[in-house]
Structures are given as structure tokens and as C-alpha cells.
Amino acid sequence: MKNQPVSLLTSLFFLTALYGCSGVSQKEHDKLKEENKALQEQIDELKFGPSKLISQAKIYIDNKNFNKAKSEIETLMNKHPSSRESAEARQLVPIVNKGIKDQELAKERLKLEKERNEKQRLANATKKLRTNYDDIKEVTWYYDRGTPQYTNYNSFHIYIGKTKNGAPWLRLRIQYTGDDWLFIEKYVIKTDTDSYTIETTYRDVDKDNGSGAIWEWYDAQMNDKLYRIVKEVIKSKSAKIRHNGKQYYEDRTITQKEKQSLQNILDAYEVLGGKTDF
User: Fold this and answer.
1) 3-state helix, strand, coil in the chain (%, to 5)
2) Alpha-carbon gap, residue 39 to 34, rounded angstroms
3) Same domain, yes or no, for 212 and 248?
4) Contact criterion met (CB below 8 Å) for 176 and 217
5) Distance of CA 153 to the CA centre of its chain
6) 133 Rama class: left (phi>0) / alpha (psi -120 to 50) / beta
7) 78-88: pLDDT as tens digits
8) 181 and 227 both lie in a single domain
9) Which ranges of the sequence are coiled-coil (predicted)?
10) Which terminal residue of the chain, N or C, has fewer Cβ atoms less than 10 Å from its own Cβ?
11) Which residues 6+ apart lie within 8 Å of 202 measured at CB?
12) Are residues 211 and 159 in the same domain?
């Protein structure tokens, strides 16, 4: 019985081929046409017979695929309205309709829950920031509350700039403080999986000193490479930075607090409509 559909299709193909051949008499032609029609009806019965349709509908219901079950039931009632299976199918209609409605309601509840969670997450992100408004440039700067407000602290952080109606942008800032000048020429960031180098020129790194301490800091517009570094630092269990100077270098571990600050800014950047295709 398993091979019957294949056999019928093969026979149908064979008869169709003969039907198209030249040299067939009218009697043979009519006979082939009738056989072709009979085979097509058998194939339709195997595919769309009432027992097949009701059986498939029940399988779909058991699998909670109610939309497909509804399609099978509608086909059954349209093709075989007076059949026993059609009467049985009518009893399944309320079950199918309730299943579809319940799934739609569940889907809508899930959508609303996701929206609420997302709004809450984004609202929480902006609460963690401090702002500074530059009234000359008409730019609002957003910083995580955990990042230093002055340059005389070691720090690896990012911050956001935004005009009133413009799209936000990101900047990366690396601060070094110590007793001796390094005259930093590059930064090497080592994460769990890779090592990254940020090359600089003399003009890229600003410098200052006071009260026996020196400060060197790098402040750059975010780009694709820097963004990848930030993302890697956030997810790494251990991330270290080397401030590589002209003759000397200084290493330190990027703290968990700094990583959290990086993530807070990225969350807030998303809230403000920031894009990551730098």
C-alpha cells in the first residue's frame, strides 16, 4: 500500500505520454483519456480523501498546529460535505478555533511582556548616567556614573554625545596617571580570546601634570575596530591594558566596574537611537 501513490503517478505519467504520442486511434485515445481521469481521481483520493484529511487534521491538533488543522478541516468539508468524516470534522472546529485564539492571545501577551521588559531595561540604562551640557556647542554628553569626572584617574571608558535633534555618537577614552611620563605611543588590550593594538600619534595623546603626578589620555571617535574591542572587553573574564610608551610601559587590569560602565553606556546609546554600523 505504501508504494501505491508512486505507482499511480508512474502510471499517470505513462498514460499522459502515450496520450501525447501521434498515431493513436480515436478509440485508444478515448480509452487512455478515461484511464488517465481514473488515475487522477485515485491520486486525489489518496491526497484529499476524507479519511486522509480527518486523520491529518487530528495529527495537527495533537501537535497544536491549529492553523494547519483548520485548513485540513475546511478542505474536507468543502470536498466531502456529506461524508461521515465531514460530520466528525465539524465537531473539531470549536477545538481548533479555541486553539488558534489561545495561541494568538499567548503570542500577544509574550509580545507585550517583551516590550515592557525592553522599556524597563532601557529606562534603567539612562538612570545610570550623569550628563553634562555644553551650551556653546549645544551638545549633551552622557557618562556612566561610575566613570571618573577628571583626568587624574586611570580609566578605560566610553561616553555619548548628542545634539538636540541629532543622532548620538560614541567616543572611547583611555586615561593613564602615574609618577613618570610614558609618552604613550600605543595601547595593547589583551582579552580572553585575543590581543588588540590601538596605534596613536604624538598629537593623539594629551598630557598634563600637577602635584607630582602626570596624566596622559587618549580620546577618540568610536569606529568599528574600537567597538569590537569594547565588546570583547565587556564579555571577557579578564581584560588587561598596556600603556606602551616610548621607552617604558605600564600594565593594569580593566576592572569589573569599568566593564559594567561600558555596558551601561552601550545600553543607553541604544536607548538614544544609536547605530553600531560605524
Assistant:
1) 50, 25, 25
2) 9
3) yes
4) yes
5) 37
6) beta
7) 989 999 999 99
8) yes
9) 22-49, 100-132
10) N
11) 183
12) yes
